[in-house]
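Structure, all two chains, one model.
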Amino acid sequence: GENVEQHPSTLSVQEGDSAVIKCTYSDSASNYFPWYKQELGKRPQLIIDIRSNVGEKKDQRIAVTLNKTAKHFSLHITETQPEDSAVYFCAASINDSWGKLQFGAGTQVVVTP
Amino acid sequence: EAGVAQSPRYKIIEKRQSVAFWCNPISGHATLYWYQQILGQGPKLLIQFQNNGVVDDSQLPKDRFSAERLKGVDSTLKIQPAKLEDSAVYLCASSLLLGGGYEQYFGPGTRLTVT
């Protein structure tokens, strides 16, 4: 089955700097890659996603890149703000797996003022 | 629109007791998921429903866990008997349609502590 690895497990950045989180997946059939943000004690919420026919997607200060050959995808947050502090999860899904998501272990991002 | 609802929010039980969780998905969402999230880990899918049928329960410990989605709307997840390692947050999610690429909306979760 699909296996998703996520790095780093913790990331501390100064406010205004950029943060990058990287994930690798094992199944080349995976074709949907969402990123979820989970604040302490709250539900995971989708912040951005990318499909395998696209190499990059951007939404204001966040962007995701996908390298299908290397089987890795990354989340980029620019101009970080204190409210970006949360745990971020990457996930991968295979189109014929009925939408089943395999999640990474998560990255705790701490933005210090 | 109203989000995914779950209850209870917190539950503390002793090992070998039973417990049940309830989930009400977003109206009109055909697909419903139950995830287990152990502290410090990503959510792990336990079971997935399409309407009232099971699509995937390959990671559900069927000797102690059961789930149903009668009438294709609300769902309940039961653990009987509970073990210490069942301590986790149980998240329910729903999506409009079956298949990859459809956003999954999560509920607030039920935090279970087994002592």
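DSSP finds no helices and eleven strands in chain B.
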